[in-house]
Amino acid sequence: MSLEEVARRAGVSTATVSRVMNNKTVVKSATRNRVLRVVTELNYHPNLHARTLAGGRSRTLGMILSNMENPFFLDIYRAVEALAHTRGYEVVVANTDYRREQLLASLRMMIGRRVAGLAVVVSEMDPSFLNEVNESKTPAVFYDAGAACQSVHNIRINYRLGIERMVDYLHDLGHHKFAFIGHHSALGPMSEREVTFVETVKRFDTEWRTAADEDGLEGGRQAARSLLQSGFQPTAIICVNDFMAVGVLRELRDRGLRVPQDVSVTGFDNIKLSEFCYPALTTVHIPRERIGRHVFAMLVPEEAKPKPPAQEMIIDPEFVLRASTGPAPARE
Known about the structure:
The chain is an alpha/beta fold. It has three domains: 3-46, lambda repressor-like DNA-binding domains (434 Repressor (Amino-terminal Domain)), CATH 1.10.260; 55-158 and 287-317, 3-Layer(aba) Sandwich (Rossmann fold), CATH 3.40.50.2300; 159-286, Rossmann fold. It has helices spanning 3-10, 14-21, 29-42, 48-55, 71-86, 100-112, 127-136, 159-172, 188-201, 217-229, 242-254, 272-276, 288-299; strands spanning 60-65, 90-95, 117-121, 140-143, 152-157, 177-182, 207-212, 236-239, 264-266, 283-285, 312-315, 318-320. The strands form three sheets. Strands 2-1-3-4-5-11 form a six-stranded parallel sheet, sandwiched between helices. It is elongated and about 85 Å long. The mean pLDDT is 89.
């Protein structure tokens, strides 16, 4: 079924049908309804590929994420997708599993598709990848990677503030034996959290260790197991994210350790799971829905408004106190 047939049945021009399909507001309500009725009757599907070739720009946004199993990334994707649908865009997503080679392949695939905009929410960034996107002139937003330049925007989180707040709070509760559990510690945002942890605990008279495994529930569990099997017995465990913290809670429970009476545990991100696990996690809130709104606004500016210049946005996270933390147990 063709665009011309829809126009003929609806008694309008092909340009009018195109405006309706692109959700333009210049079409009268009665005309729009008539066109949509014919579209439904004829089961018409627009040729998006042809539209891209003709106009040079698709109505597809690309998103590249490090780990779609982690609800943090999924929440940002869902926020962008919801807004995209209101403006007649679709979102194509790629998962890298924290692999730089997969990120490069995904970047090139998205650029090759001539996406209207690209959101890169990853940790495994290389400066050359940023340059490649910039040279393609594809409007892009990078999360916690590179710097704003030309057509590339950047959104950053003040991880240092969140980690410092967490360590200070636990130290004030009397904790002197700290552990940090992370993943992919060589990657930028992960490294920043661990480095900040080490720098902060060194200000106090404390013992501390770090451990790492894969990003996930099982990874958190395995990292906690390795840490405890080493003989170190922390009274406070700070996790790089909530996803791993839930795995840590499971390992502590299996070992008969009480949270927070024996060990306090914290997360980072404030995903929904952190509120519903037991005990509910003390964590640091990163506003994923807000980030998604900013990503979309940077990639798809409102109609009749000029394209915004490249910008860098820094977001301060918020401390969220729940039941998984408490005073340190009495020293022996």
